Amino acid sequence: MQYADKLKKTLRSTLWLGLTIIVFACLVKLSFWQYNRGFEKEQRAIRIMQLNQQSPLTLSEIVKLSKDKQFTGKESINDFPVTIIGQFNGDYVFLLDNQVENNSLGYRVLQVVETPTHSVLINLGWVQGSIDRSILPDVTPLHGQHNFQGHVRIVEQGIMLAAQDFTQPSWPLRVQQIELNKFSALISPLIDKPLLPFVIYVDQEENLGYKKNWHPMVMPAEKHFGYAFQWAALAIAWLILMIYFRIKTRKPVHVLSEGLPGALQNR
Length: 267
Prior knowledge:
- Belongs to the SURF1 family.
- It is a multi-pass membrane protein.
- The chain has 267 residues and is of the alpha/beta class.
- The protein folds into 2 domains: 83 residues; 113 residues, no CATH class.
- It is built from 6 helices and 7 strands.
- 20% of the residues are buried.
C-alpha cells in the first residue's frame, strides 16, 4: 500500500514537473521568436531608409544586381527603389482578393508591364469590392507606355487550402494569391517573356493606379518587442503559479499528525 501511494506521488510529481517545463519552454520560445522578428524588422527598416537615399535603379539593373551578387535570402533585392519605362498590357488584369482597407473588403489591381528585355507584375493599388461576390470592381486597364517609380517586393507565399484553378480564366481574373509561374503561363499567348520573380509596388507619390495603402512592413518592430515582453511575462507568471500551487497542495504527513489528538496518534 505504501509502495502504491509512493508511486502515485512520484507519477503526480513527474507529470507536474513535465507540464511546468513544457509550457514554460513554449512561452519562452514564443518570446524569443517575437524578439527575433522585431530585430529583423528593425534591421529592415534601417535598410529601407538607406535604400531610399539612393537613386532608383532600372529594372535591368535590378535583375543584374540579383545575378551578380547571387543573393540567397528573402531580403535580397527586396525594397530596392526602381524606375520603370515600359508598356502596360491591358489584356491581363489580376485582382488580388481579400484585401482590407479601413474594415472594407477589396482587391489589389495587378497588371503586366513589358520592357524590351523583361516583363514584370505591377501592383497598382487597392479598389473597393462589392458585397455581392459575383460582381467584380469596375477597373479600367492601363495601356501604352508609362514612366514611373516603385519598390521591389518579393512575393511571400501564404497557406492555401486548395490550388488555384486557371484552366478557364476570365479577365479581369480574381486570384487568391500571387503565383508568378502560373501567371506567366496565362499571359504566354501574348507575352513571351516570363514574369520576373517579384512584384513592383508603385510609389505612393505616383498618380498612376489606385489607392496605395501599403507599407513595407505590416507590423513594426515595436509591436514584436511588445509581444516578446508579454510572452516572457506569461512564462514567469506560469512558473510562479505552478510553484505556488505545488507548495499549497503538498501536505506533509508529519504536519498533519501534529494536529491530531494524542489518543488518535497512538492508535
